[in-house]
Amino acid sequence: MLLSLCLPPRSGRILTRRLLKNQARTGDPDPLEERHFGPIWFVPGEMGGRYPFCHSIYVEGPGILIDPASDRNRLKELRDNPGVKQIWLSHWHEDHITCLDLFEDLPIFMGERDARSISDVESFLDSYGMDKEEDREHWRIILRRDFNFKSREPSGYLKEGEILHPEGVSVEVMETAGHTPGHLSFFFIEPGVLFMGDYDLSRFGPWYGDTGSSIEQSLASINRLREHPARVWLTGHETGIFEQNPGEAWDRYLEVIAKREEKLYALLDQPRTLEDIVGAWIVYGRPREPKAFFEFGERAIMKKHLQRLLDSGRIHAFEDRYRRADFPRTA
Asked: Would residue 7 count as lying in a domain?
């Protein structure tokens, strides 16, 4: 049974409806149940935690809520009983702050390098590298209407290597940059629970399309999380809970990065513009709706791979086209 949307009931929800229609083509995911691992509560998101939803984490005792964008009604219940005292964010993306408006009076803590992104809507769009005014205006409306965006300033920053002890719960802060420059993961020491945020081990693979995102940092962070000792692994999307080492899921997740690059390299056996590359749908596999949303994602990720191939010398750029270095430009 579907949980209530994080979005206000009177909003247009145009983006959300179209995204959900697209997601439904892949089949409805099995509903996830709320699970408690000692004081660490896994609060599942709508549609199995697929975008534009995510899973939230609630820490009983200190009343910490991480990534408030799962189920609006459940988050209201937690706010009222047993109570939410502070908000932590794994990162700044819209699908992790949708219900932040329920907690306007509470302090927010996050990674310093992500803080500017939630300071105002223009900084938010800048962080995505959104440069077309038409796209920006479209997203100004969506962010405020469908994701309840309001400018926020963190009360403080969570830093790499800190071991915090809020009301008897020990948590290690891990800076896991790549997905965003200030992405954080959290290891709850006593129950052995590792929350990995948006390193979600989904079959789609990692996102690293923001202005400050990095393929190399993503690879390093994924491998670091893989090697970190834990008994339970929690993610911000989809499967959400791994009670045994994810094993081959790590390999599949990393493989997605390599396969994207291999497909792009193969495509560049003749000169291609960026728009040619976007039209190949290497990331999403096929054209999807809403087109503007998915074309933006395709372009953002492909630009990262193009830069990586340019830096390695495997491809060349000339005029507005890209081509493999092992093919002569005049061919």
From this structure: no
> Token pair of 92, please?
């700044």
3-state secondary structure of 12: coil
Number of domains the chain contains = 2
Helix axes 133-146, 14-24, angle to 10 degrees: 90
Is pLDDT of 241 > 60?
yes
Distance CA 298, CA 282 (A): 8
Per-residue pLDDT for 3 more than 80?
A: no
- The CATH number of whichever domain residue 303 belongs to comes to 1.10.10
Is the domain of 306 the same as that of 218?
A: no
234 has pLDDT over 60: yes
List the domain range (segments joined by +) for residue 278.
Answer: 258-324
Model confidence at 186: pLDDT above 90: yes
Are 79 and 110 in contact by the 8 Å Cβ rule? The answer is: no
Of 246, 281, 316, which one is at a domain's C-terminal end? Answer: 246
Place of tokens 């290597």: 161
Q: At what angle do helices 215-227 and 248-267 cross, to 10 degrees?
A: 160
51-70 average pLDDT score: 98
- Sort residue 49 into left (φ over 0), alpha (ψ -120 to 50) or beta: left
